[in-house]
Amino acid sequence: MVETGRIRVAKDKAELVKALTAADGATGPFPTYADVIVFAAALGAKHKKRVPLGEVSKKEPAPIPQEQFLVRGYDAVINLIAVNETEELKILSLTENHTNENRNDIFEEYVNGGLEMLQIELRGAVDYTERLLLILISEVVRQKKEEEEFDLSKFLPQM
Questions:
Q1: What are the backbone angles phi and psi of residue 61, rounded to the nearest 5°?
Q2: Rounded to an integer, what distance in angstroms lies between the CA atom of residue 22 and that of residue 16?
Q3: How many Å apart are CA 67 and CA 7, to the nearest integer?
């Protein structure tokens, strides 16, 4: 059961989340836990990697109040991921029972999947910022390549 109004992190990913954050003198690429979490969720959703949490981190990072996501505008990401997963707009309902918990569950599982991917990609890295930049660049290159593969304009007569 989800702790209402909080986004949880799997215990086995807690150290990674802390290492990716520029808090308490650390030099991670993200200013807050919420920023790391949303990046991981987007990565997990892009690659359709949804992983149940298992044991939840109770210390750093403790479950993060949902308000931290709201003030940064990240509630839109949580909602988009939930709608994309369920293919139902009623998941956004404010009056239906448990829709907030369901959205959070889906979001947390994509966060966990994205963090699992990052654990593999960042293994052995000294500078997480540099490695993340390389990951992002490779995603852009891959996307451009996919777009080129589906470019039907090459079938049009040349003028």
A1: -80, 130
A2: 12
A3: 10
Q: pLDDT tens for residues 30-79?
A: 999 999 999 999 999 999 999 999 899 888 888 999 999 999 999 999 99
At position 73, the amino acid (one-letter code) is G
| Report for 13-17, 26-30, 97-101: range of highest mean pLDDT | 13-17
pTM confidence score? 0.83
The strand pairing partners of 6, in sequence order, are: 65
Tokens of 144: 């451009």
**How many whole angstroms from its chain centre is CA 123?**
18
Kindly state the tokens that stand for 25.
Answer: 């003198």
Give me the residues paired with residue 65 across strands. Answer: 6
| Contact criterion met (CB below 8 Å) for 30 and 41 | no
CA dihedral 44, 50, 54, 60 (to 10 degrees): 20
3-state secondary structure labels for all residues of 2-66: CCCCEECCEHHHHHHHHHCECCCCCCCCECCHHHHHHHHHHHHHHCCCCCCCCCECCCCCCCEEH
